[in-house]
């Protein structure tokens, strides 16, 4: 019985020492929360999100619909969106899409 208790204490102490490092967080992406929020807002403005699960990457129709919805929800940014989005879809496809 004493042996079992000693074994249980040893296992518990090892578990605590290794388990405490399991919850340590590391910032491996290198992006701050503000940068992620800015990227998400840019993707919304470009019409890339939201996209249904069965339409990924989003089709041109989905992107156009999302841009219209964004322009309605953010009327002050509509003019900036039209000038910024005139060059293309903003990353979908990219330079390698024509290959």
TrEMBL record:
Signal peptide: 1-24
Domain of life of the native organism: Bacteria
InterPro entries per the UniProt record, alphabetical: DUF4148
Keywords attached to this entry: Signal
Protein name: DUF4148 domain-containing protein
Organism field: Paraburkholderia haematera
């Amino acid at each position: 019985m004493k042996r079992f208790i000693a074994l249980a204490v040893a296992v518990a102490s090892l578990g605590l020492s290794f388990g405490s490092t399991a919850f340590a967080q590391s910032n491996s992406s290198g992006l701050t929360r503000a940068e992620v929020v800015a990227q998400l807002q840019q993707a919304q403005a470009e019409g890339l999100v939201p996209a249904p699960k069965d339409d990924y990457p989003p089709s041109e129709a989905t992107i156009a619909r999302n841009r219209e919805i964004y322009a309605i929800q953010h009327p002050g940014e509509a003019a900036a969106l039209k000038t910024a989005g005139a060059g293309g879809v903003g990353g979908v496809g990219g330079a390698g899409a024509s290959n």
